[in-house]
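FAQ: What does a ligand-bound record look like?

Like this one, built around 4'-deoxy-4'-aminopyridoxal-5'-phosphate:
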Amino acid sequence: MATSLSDRLSTELAGLRDAGLLISPRVLEAPQRARTRVDGRAVVNLASNNYLGFADHPKLKARAQEYLEKWGAGAGAVRTIAGTLQIHEDFERQIAAFKHTGSALVLHSGFTTNQGVLGALLQEGDLVVSDELNHASIIDGLRLTKATRKVFRHADPADLERVLRENPTDGLVMVVTDGVFSMDGDVAPLDELVAVARKFGAVTYVDDAHGSGVMGPQGSGTVHHFGFEYADDVIQVGTLSKAWGGVGGYAAGHGDLRQLLINRARPYLFSTAMAPATVGALAAALDEVQADPSLMERLWDNTRFFKAELHRLGFDTMGSVTPITPVVFGEAPAAFEASRRLFDEGIFAVGLGFPTVPRGKARIRNIVTAEHTRADLEQALSAYEKVGRALGII
Ligand code: PMP
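The answer part, i.e. the structure of the complex:
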């Protein structure tokens, strides 16, 4: 007898429940802002990736409405079949100009961008070497390829060099890393990684989901932070769903990259394009970050203030240097308890435990944004002090 769907569902859910891993997202009753309402409570929001406060920004909403009126609610079909809207083409040129790259292509999310680009570029006989802490969408993207897959130790150029030396190939060689790592908030040592990659003729592929809108001049990204924006052997991918306030992903780099992806990236070929309102919001986001330098200043002022105050209170933030600010609570139950108590104090910040992060390093991940006021952060810090003392962490 075949397994019934109800058996499969109840067994899997019971397994997750017993392991304490069953997740249900909290429900927001107001827009994704620095202060919002979650499950009936007014909270300071430290859980989102809304780095620049664009998720509910008036200029993004105005442009989204304008594009909605002018271009409609939907894109109609896959771009190679029904034709591509002018606004998609214009937006891609805007990204390439912003990133100083030869070309850029937009896909539906950061997740599908990794799948589409890695799947399109890598072939049998190629070698891809990936940081051990790279994001799940990179891991899934690499599973779609027939390239030989190897891993190097997190942010370790010497280990990367060892792996490249031990695996010579005539095929394309690609080094893959996140720009900013989403759990620890550390930055890939791109200057050293690119130097090693170049010794072996390898291309460097940077997933800058958490670096776009955060790192580099005007939030142009981690690749810009390290000065590699004009390099043809560096591919930048990232999401338009975090700092840029909408949803989508981009790939930017070599002048021919876009044309190849149009022909080979499966999400481009088989999935309908981004809705016009989203294109409008994102185009406005790119304009706004260049027009208003105070956005980046506030993001980094807030980041420095929040980290310094957490250190002064005695918390361990794992050496994070970006707005992603982990606070270590040890084992998972302590982190989850801390998250519950912070919520009772009006602070929304998620607890993360094994297997998302290593055992003993369970944490609360806080994300500081440009939209937080000093008062928001001070409220969060006094809640942290109270909860940290009650749980014996500080
Ligand atoms: N790459 C990294 C490093 C990420 O953190 C994320 C988001 N969790 C993604 C890709 C996926 O981006 P998106 O949410 O746009 O699918």
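Follow-up question: can I read anything off the structure? Yes, for example: The two ends are 56 Å apart (CA to CA).
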